[in-house]
Fold this protein.
Amino acid sequence: MRRGNPGLKSVRFYSNTFSASWMHKKVAVDFFVRYSYDHKPVMESTCFENGKFVRTMENHKGFHRINLETSVQILPWKEYIAIRVTPFLNRYISRGNTYTHTHTNFGVRGSLMAAYKNWTFMAEMNTSNHTLWGETITKEEKLHSMMLGYNKDKWSVSAGVLNPFTKRYEQEIENISQLAGSRQVAFSTNLSPVFMVNVSFRLDFGRTYKSQNKVLNNSDTNAGILSGKK
């Protein structure tokens, strides 16, 4: 059974971010870390009353997040090809009134971008990203994609495909409550690739006016002295 809570109070949120970059010829490194804290966060709570599990929302003790990632980009062939690899680490600490949960998620994102004259090619992939809030862990899907495009001054066209190398799709939501835990998994073993086409163009119409900058020069040559014949 789910129950509302009209006595909820406002939450204080604190966030600290640090980033640094280093570049040398064909290599670039970006470092990013963020720590955030929710004081008295509104999170879920589960209890057992009169033979029923009751789930409601309460102000709990605190919630900590640490997000860390390091991105390394390599230019093996001038500016025509760029390869980027970004490992990341997510750490969550959920301190409830009657529970304390921790979860650590390590993953990686990668991309390859190539450009030659008017042609562009891009490929991306990422592992599953996890989030913890209260007693619920959400595990997002794994993705990879490829895109080929052609660009001109006033128009561009591109075509791509999502998840061309796998037939499996999976997304999971898990509640880790000791009283009433649950696990929901949405998956498919016969996933079909998703094809995409993008067309963009620019239309120029109507009158075009040319504006010139005007310089206003104000000068006062009157000294304020009146001269006359007596």
